[in-house]
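Sample entry (573 residues):
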Amino acid sequence: MYPSRRRLSLSRAIDKQPEEQLGGQEKRCRFLGAMRITEILAFFMVLIPVLLVIVAMFGYDQGNGFVEASRIIRMEPEPNVTSSDDSTLHRDQEQKDSVDLSLLGGLLVSGFKKESCLSRYQSYLYRKDSPYRPSLHLLLKLRAYEELHKRCGPGTRPYTNAERLLKPKQTGEMESEGCKYVVWMSFSGLGNRIISIASVFLYAMLTNRVLLIEGGEQFADLFCEPFLDTTWLLPKDFTLTSQFSGFGQNSAHCHGDMLKRKLINGSSVSSLSHLYLHLAHDYNDHDKMFFCAEDQNLLKNVPWLIMRTNNFFAPSLFLIPSFEEELGMMFPEKGTVFHHLGRYLFHPSNQVWGLITRYYQAYLAKADERIGLQIRVFDEKSGVSPQVTKQIISCVQNEDLLPKLSKGEEQHKQPSEEDSKLKSVLVTSLTTGYFEILKTMYWENPTVTREVIGIHQPSHEGHQQTEKLMHNRKAWAEMYLLSLTDKLVISAWSTFGYVAQGLGGLRAWILYKQENQTNPNPPCGRAMSPDPCFHAPPYYDCKAKQGTDTGNVVPHVRHCEDISWGLKLVDNS
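Predicted structure, serialized as tokens:
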């Protein structure tokens, strides 16, 4: 188009000044001048759009305060990863991530049908970028696990051969197939299920086992499949399913009981097709030997491990010498285990995603700041407690999460547009009492900062109803909504709050548990890391074969903020 435009302008210039009125030299000068001007104009018309595109790609985004292009060009070295394969993976992943932000920095893979799991491809639109970046070694381990699961998962020949080992008087081809399994048994409330599955998955990756989940239709109704072209759900016709209800600490194949009766050793293990691992909150000292390197060396030869647990036992895996180096490379930032594995594994189903997005758009999307407030009172019969109410208000106001109320003549001043910032508070609780108190308080009184405070509560189920599908849908939706907030307050001991904090990568403020109906001082404190607390850790030195404080062995495994005997993963800093 530019040459034709140049030709048109030149003809017009010639028409205006006929040849007979110009001398030969003057004609040539004017002709050349016109040509140079139009060429310069054409050059800039081509150059300016190109410059604008470059600026748009690499420019500084004033609204978000970060350079989007850094996703493409940033190449930070990762500790303990130096191979050329890792570097290539990093470059490839950065390029892919720059195109598809839904992959969460390489944590997820593409290839899933978008309509089958909308949350997998839309969740990044609802939350801020994570401040924590998955390590290259973790990405390599996830990709390797995905291949293992696809090769050995339900419906494959290796799975069929491995299951045949569980049937009397039959043999399989386990050695040649190289597939081993750990089965998670459905147990406890939804929050406990989520954090315990993440722990079992971590163990599966460390021991090259395939994780299978007992959960049936309800589990599939809550979560999307995390692995491409396969399933993590244990088939309904699994050989041992009918025996699950009888598995316990005194079962014939219970690891702890066999240790107690001295029936387990290197030779006896080699003949076992399966072992039951009891790692629930009520496990005994023999069950806890699972966390010793010597026992891990025995367990690696058992094709099927059946595990019942309601704990986030990842902190104690970091204390097993044979896992220590691998875990250090997978998680340079130690307190992000659940944050990364939770976002990788747990994608709300389309039914639950609808609950989440509809509520978010209606009550949270337009807020300048979103505050999550998770209230869990374990004495459900006590009703609204004045002490708990006072503790909640003291926490949110002392920590500047919510403003104090205005008094006197200040009440009648109208806020300016700049002052009228909207804070939306998402309250989750089994009852409405605390929500009503906060809503009335901020409706009837202006705030000293002139901010407008909106209080919202999605549901109030009255009491925990673990086996009801709709109850679990709402619970999962509310955990996820809390994880989308900018700042979060959670209740001590509550796995519901742990899940929200971990998925969001948030260091929440924890409302300390009251003792003898007296308010703790201070009312709340900041979490050391986003990871959950392991409520029932072992206190045993496997080498010395004596009791020890496992919260003082390594700097990245410490006692929890809300449970003094619990263990938690934190960053060394």
